[in-house]
Amino acid sequence: MERTVIIDGVEKRMRASARTPRLYRSFFGRDLVVDMQKLKKSYEKTSEGEQFDALDLTIFENAAWIMLLQGGEKVGKNPDEWLDGIDGVFDIYRIMPTVLELWQDNGATTAVPKKK
Q1: CB-based contacts of 20: which residues, under 8 Å, 6+ apart?
Q2: Which of 17, 20, 21, 34 is nearest to 106 (CA)?
Q3: Which of 2, 55, 95, 99 is the most core-located residue (most Cβ within 10 A)?
Q4: What residues pair up with 88 in beta bridges, in sequence order?
């Protein structure tokens, strides 16, 4: 699955695949499945006026970095280098839906379950 987002006024390609959780675990030592569930719940709560906490922002930054890396973008050796290379700040609310959508679509199955 691939999507294009605009970060710092430039189109960037994000990609998610079966390799995404493995890369995430390798770089950050965390379970992407669990982290994305938390991030999705937190994102849904923002519509009720709640704010993201520091862990939510870290999960987002790490997942976005992995997906940009897989998309072939030049993002540095880690999320800090990527973020440091962005002039100013960017609106995570514009990129968050793409990250969540990529993750959800990547996990969707096209197989039809057999009836027992």
Answers
A1: 32, 66, 67, 70, 103, 106
A2: 17
A3: 99
A4: none
Residue appearing with tokens 């995570």: 92
- Cα gap 107→89, rounded to integer Å: 30
Q: How far apart are CA 68 and CA 85, in angstroms?
A: 14
- In tens digits, the chain (116 residues) has pLDDT values of 899 999 888 899 999 999 999 999 999 999 999 999 999 999 999 888 889 999 999 999 999 999 999 999 999 999 999 999 988 888 888 899 999 999 988 775 444 556 65
Q: How many residues appear in the chain?
A: 116
Closest by Cα among 69, 74, 63, 72 to 98: 63
